[in-house]
Design brief:
Strand content: 35-45%
CATH class: Mainly Beta
Helix content: under 10%
Radius of gyration: 19 Å
Largest sheet: 10 strands, antiparallel
Oligomer: single chain
CATH architecture: Distorted Sandwich
């Protein structure tokens, strides 16, 4: 009997391509493993034979970032999540980044994947999650949605965790623009203890400037909005010859930017994670910008990656 071909750690691989853009979506986590344009990789992804490192490209739902002690209250209930960041005693990045998503629909230039989240002891509400990934002349476009299929209102937040890069440009040399007027001040567990304006500080990237030695694992809020109500983060090469932009629609009011300093090996400070978030860290406890999904209600968003500023 012949041995079966090894199954990739990230499960099935769905490649979409159009207009010189190509992306690879994976079954495990329903996230983004690769994105390139005209052969240039703008995503610091991972190989088909690798376990997803550092949350690369993963979907973060039904909450992004951290919840202090995994404990929160909603609808008169006191709830306790599993501590998935035990060293800091936090619950981090939701419940769907290591589950198997299923194929809903596929063509050459788009794929829709889904996951039906069952009730958990710490999150006792069922959700139907779907994400449509597509590529075209404007780059990568992603349209996530979440439907409360239960009988009670539930709290909800959403984010994604792609690492962006410009080939041949070190993180220190990238010019970064983040449209946030404020940043979340955190403690040694990376949990919020306040909010501070960025103007006049080393965290002010409202106009593009070199990252240099700055160490960022920072949530930015009070964002400048584009004409369409959305906002975007850009990375640009020192000479302006290359750039990449991650945009998100008006449903996203927060940006997390992470320079990869705590990652080990070759991934240490090799790229910049840019995460559009609907709510800030620890939102289930603070209530800040938490979406309450009523029974049968669907939340929809859109974000994408585009080469060039």
């Amino acid at each position: 009997m012949e041995n079966a071909a090894p199954h990739p750690p990230s499960g099935a691989q769905w490649t979409i391509a159009a207009a010189g853009h190509e992306a690879v979506i994976v079954e495990v986590g329903g996230g983004l493993r690769a994105y390139r344009h005209d052969g240039v990789d703008y995503l610091d992804g991972y190989g088909a034979d690798e376990l997803c490192p550092g949350g690369a490209g993963q979907v973060l739902a039904p909450w992004p970032n951290r919840i202090r002690d995994g404990a929160y209250e909603f609808g008169g209930r006191s709830l306790q999540l599993t501590l998935t960041e035990p060293t800091r005693h936090n619950a981090i990045h939701g419940l769907v980044n290591w589950v198997r998503w299923h194929l809903v629909e596929r063509s050459e230039d788009f794929v829709t994947v889904g996951y039906d989240l069952p009730p958990h002891p710490g999150y006792p509400w069922p959700l139907r999650l779907r994400t449509r990934w597509s590529v075209g002349p404007d780059g990568l476009r992603v349209e996530p949605e979440a439907t409360n299929v239960g009988a009670e209102p539930c709290p909800f937040g959403w984010s994604v965790h792609p690492y962006l890069r410009l080939p041949g440009v070190a993180v220190d040399d990238l010019a970064l623009r983040v449209p946030g007027r404020t940043r979340v001040v955190v403690d040694n567990r990376l949990l919020p203890i306040g909010v501070a304006p960025v103007a006049g500080t080393g965290y002010d990237f409202t106009t593009p400037r070199r990252i240099g030695p700055a160490v960022l694992d920072t949530a930015f809020g009070d964002v400048f909005r584009d004409d369409d109500g959305g906002s975007s983060v850009t990375l640009t090469a020192p000479d302006g010859s290359a750039a990449v932009r991650l945009w998100a629609d008006r449903g996203f009011g927060w940006w997390q930017v992470f320079t990869g300093d705590t990652l080990g090996g070759e991934r240490h400070r090799r790229s910049v994670a840019v995460e559009p978030m609907t709510c800030p860290p620890d939102a289930f406890r603070s209530g800040r910008d938490v979406i309450t999904l009523e029974p049968g209600q669907t939340w929809r968003g859109a974000w994408g990656i585009r080469p060039g500023a």
